[in-house]
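User: Here's a chain of 487 residues. Predict its fold as tokens.
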Amino acid sequence: MKNIIQAPRWRETIREQFSPLLICLILALSATLFLGVAIGASSQVQLYSVAAAGAIVLGIVVLLRLDELAVTLILAVHLYIDWFLGLHLVGILMALVVLFVYYFGRSADRPWVEPRALWLWALFLVLTIYPAIYGGQLRFYDLVTFYPSNILGAFLMFWLGTVIVRDSVCLRRFLKILAGLGTLLAIHTIIEYTTGIFLLGTQYRIDNLLQAGNFQFANSTATRAVSFLVDPNWNGALLAMMAILPLGLFFASSSLLEKALYRFETFLILLALLFTYSNGAWLGAIAGLVVFMLFAGRKRSSFLVLSFIFIVAIILITFFPYEISSQLQHASNPREVTLRLGAWYTALQTIQALPLTGTGLGYLAYQLRTQPFSGLEEGVFSQPHNSYLEWAAMAGIPVLLVFVALLLFALWMALRNWTIADARTRALIGCGIAAIVSLSLSSITIDGWTHPVIAEVGWLVLGALTSPLLAQSLVMSGVREQEFCNE
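Assistant: Prediction complete.
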């Protein structure tokens, strides 16, 4: 018993000895060592070297119990290795391994906890098995993408978010690192748009981008930045979510330097969002910002948010008039509306014909099995461009209902945590809620909640906001504050 009690204290002591600078140095040296071996070697050696470097980096992070950094690294791996490079399952396996490590490494200081509504998640996991097999039998890509990422991966990330956020300090640290990842993606997007250089790109992806004409508008020279999401609408949906997180950190911070940093992060992400020219993403961003003004924690915070948005809008209009004009022309293009309505009509006709089973979870299955119901002269899209219609059309109405129930329940639990939090923690929870609202609105015109990467970011944030450990910590803080006032 003595050793069990002392173990977490020993780990905490070790962790305190490592400053953030030293930790970054260890990670950089490990990655440099193994990546250096790969220089000039064969592609197979490069692959193994990168895998070894990544494993060592993640191992160090997990051993130091830098939980918030660990889950963000998993997201980064899932974005770049699984989605961009097409390896599909690396991030999911990492999430599963880390979850097991946290279970066997549980202690009084780092307790294990089950996610909310576990029975509802179990129902979701079971109901989607048949649609995943039925759709995946036509193409291997769909088989290893939809169920492992959109369903099982979503559940694992939700659970990880629940485990790592034990109090408001953990929540703030998690949002800091996640906002940092969003800022890096924004910088990558800005560099791609302004210079035409795609950093860390592969020849295969660059060739695909060239074949798509860099998503250039007809009768215009404006091109749309895709970054590692490989599509401007997906890139925009993720950036719209990320843009709100630094605002919550701004109101939760007391440091002027940090406040300036968070404002700069928000500006960079919104600038990158402009370069995607995504109508649906801007719809989600505006909705998210409005919701954040309601849940920012203080009344004057709403005015500060509105003032900041006004300043950013003036800057964008003044210095980027061509981009603003192109965005407005794209938003008012009747062809865009026609294509979206046609895609939605096809999905609704499919749902009416196959209400229980759908076409199966898969892009090829949807494209082939919805041809009799197509409402488009151009043919059939590979998905409905609407996450909610996609769940119903591909997997059946029961799956859609369970998904919506999971989403609404998680938002309700996040709102409950918000009501018992102090002002600064409310800003953190509020920005998370606003980010989820942004994703949910974007998903009406973009398949955000059914994208393998974007959906996992959303479920990770929801897991953090609904953590029972966070709720318990907030209740105890309220009790201690009340006792202090009574004294």
